[in-house]
Amino acid sequence: MTLVGRHDSLRVLADAASAAKVGQGALVMVRADPGLGVTSLLEAHVSAMRDSGLRLHRIPVLRPGGRTSLSDQMPELDEPAMVVIDDLHQADDATLLALHALAEDVYSRPLLIVAGRHRRVAAQRFAALDRFAIVHDLEPLTPDAVRAMLGEPSPRAADAGGNPWLLSRIHAADRPAQVTVWAADLAGADTHLLRCAALLGDAASVDELAAVTGATPSEVLSGVARLTAQGLAEEAAGEVRLRYPLLRKDIVSTSSGLRGSVAKVLAQRGARVERVAEHLVHGTVDSWTIDWLTERAEMLTARATPAVVRLLERGVAALQPGDPRLPPLRAAWVEALLWSGQMDRARRAASEGLLAQPDESIRNRLLAVLGIIASGEFTPEPVLEVLETVRGEGDLPPRLAVLDAYAQLLAGDMEATQRAVAAASPAAADDPLVEVYLCNVRTIGLCLLRDYAAAREQLDRGAVLLEISAYDRAQWLISRMLRALLQNLEHDPDVLETIEQARPIARDLGLGFLPWLHTIAAVAALNFGEWDRALTEVEDALALPHQHGMAGPLHAVAATILLNRGDLPAARAHAQLADRAPIYGVAMFYESLMMVTRAVLAGVDGDLERAMEIVRDVVERNVGMRHDRSIAPVCVPLVRIAVAGGEKELALRLIDRMREWSDEDDAKVNYCLGLVDGDVDRLLAAAQDFTENSTPLVAAQAAQDAAVALAASGRSAAAKAAYQSAIDKYAAMAAHREIDRTAANLRSYGVQFGASGPRGRPKHGWDSLTGAELRVVELVAQGLTNREAAERLILSVRTVDSHVSRVLRKLDCSSRLELAVKFRDRDADA
């Protein structure tokens, strides 16, 4: 009989049996919580000992009284012998007294007594026996044992907490019923308390349990203590939790009849509306439910869980036409669909609601939903069309006016944006949500003006309002992404954390928010030298069904990285795709990035005339949002192109543009001046400044330019030192092209490198792996599937598949198993 994960326990019992055969008996007390497999362990031990020479005596404990053959008199035991008693926690006092008598001299007899019992049930009753016994506690199965037991990964396995009984039912079609019956059998008279604890969620307070069950807090605590003794529950600091998440979920699924009464008790106690809705959605939608929904509609829509959406939908369906509660409830349902990311359903429901010709307030709410969806797709024209339906009636209502501001901003009409802001601003004092919208619009304008301090103040104000006065998932998301943009402009490494905070909501809402978030993340990772991460963001965004105008900037990021890494065919392919991609909405703010990519590639291809033409277009302000401030951040690579093409006057015009919107001691301005003048000191100082500000690519380029300038002046040793500084940064990013190109440039000045000179990342072996690839290898070696690794690293499965394929090729492995073995061997050698 095979018992997974209990080899050590079987060895303990087998060693005790071997000792008993030679006259050194023992009492072994096996303890565990229910479901951890005491009975299975004893059965496996008995099976293994059949040919051991020990006579077997099985002593059953008879329910309900707990009588056994030891209750009346001590049986004759032919020795050497093994006595096995299961469920000892149910045995009567006479049985325990008989065991005490046997245990007093068992260690001098060829007698092994193996008893199994539940660990926490009446523990004091067994304290004296435990002192005589070899106590062996069974613990939950380890993750490796769980995998061995199931044979294949299961997303529910973690919820079973390593409990073998629960794990054995993981795939059963009627698992919820089986688990509930098992738990109810253990809970006995406390089954109702157990069900209520499950229904109240992950942590139920004693007071809530008392209110729901109609018991006193003291009675609840006594019941919880009994459930804890059975291994079903745990209590700490007044909060009760069921021991296993799977147990709670299955009991909840079989206890729907209680949910209505639980919901009403929670509502009376002022519980969170979404928590009440989780229960109401499983019951009948009665008049009380409709009234409760109507009174709390605004709170429900702001944090629309799937249960909230379903409950509102059922409420709308339950009302008859003409009921005055129907229009506001329908508007709340439409808004809940919007904030839960069900955009197509929200659009249809809003349009259908407008056909009913609701009053002005409801109409404006439905129009706002249509406008938000259109603006989330980054297409201003549909938003403006929606607003045109009411614009003829006079001034737009404040919440529609702020949508107008967004649409005009997306259309690139800055004057119309300012007019819309002015129209909405008077209402901001009375409507916090209007002020949140305005804070985000103002932030965008201030970022264009490079007034980062003022932009940060607007974001902070909006964050406070979202926290205490208003909640709008789209505006919260936009404010997070704007903060990430600002952090990226200021070279703040916290940008990557901000992006991760925003990612779950972006995934929920979808539309253009998700590709925009990927673009922000890709640009940030590009700037901070995390190029593998940047390429992953690009790949994940391009795998989406629609990029909402962001495909051009995404391809430009990929082209920039691949160009620096020396993969010119792939870089050109991405650049061509960027040129062909439609650009609109938010993507227009990234057009300067795309133009820089075009100019750099033109220079690499030897088409300096085309490169200079692009730079002149930028200088003439024919780029992006046609706003002078938006091009200042991308002037550095353009100055490098102008200097390389011998166009110093053009370079100085770009530097003047940078100075207009930069601090006096801005490192990028000084770097560009160093390029124009060939000033080595300025170049080296800029390289140091960029290194400290976490901008590795520009730092490497500055050190590279300093190395060339030093070599040109005949200072070979200093040139090598500067080049080494550049190499260290380029190698970390695998920028092979820049390494090779600069080395060739320095050789043209007579600076030679020996066999031990700087090298880029090798093509094969462990040193060829990128940071992202190495992280994937670590997880593969731990036994994770590609899907599990993707979830752990917050990547797409396709991206992890690509990483694994590249790693297998680089390490010359034919399988994941060989890869895991190589990793473990390498780890051991280290």
Automatic annotation (TrEMBL):
GO terms under biological process: regulation of DNA-templated transcription
One term under GO cellular component: cytoplasm
A Pfam family matched in the record: GerE
Entry keyword set: ATP-binding, Nucleotide-binding
Gene3D superfamilies: Winged helix-like DNA-binding domain superfamily/Winged helix DNA-binding domain (1.10.10.10)
Coiled-coil zones: none
Domain (HTH luxR-type) ranges: 762-827
Superkingdom classification of source: Bacteria
SUPFAM superfamilies, sorted: C-terminal effector domain of the bipartite response regulators (SSF46894), P-loop containing nucleoside triphosphate hydrolases (SSF52540)
GO molecular function: adenylate cyclase activity; ATP binding; DNA binding
Cross-referenced PANTHER family: TESTICULAR SOLUBLE ADENYLYL CYCLASE (PTHR16305), TRANSCRIPTIONAL ACTIVATOR DOMAIN (PTHR16305:SF35)
Record protein name field: Regulatory LuxR family protein
Organism: Saccharopolyspora dendranthemae
Species lineage: Bacteria, Bacillati, Actinomycetota, Actinomycetes, Pseudonocardiales
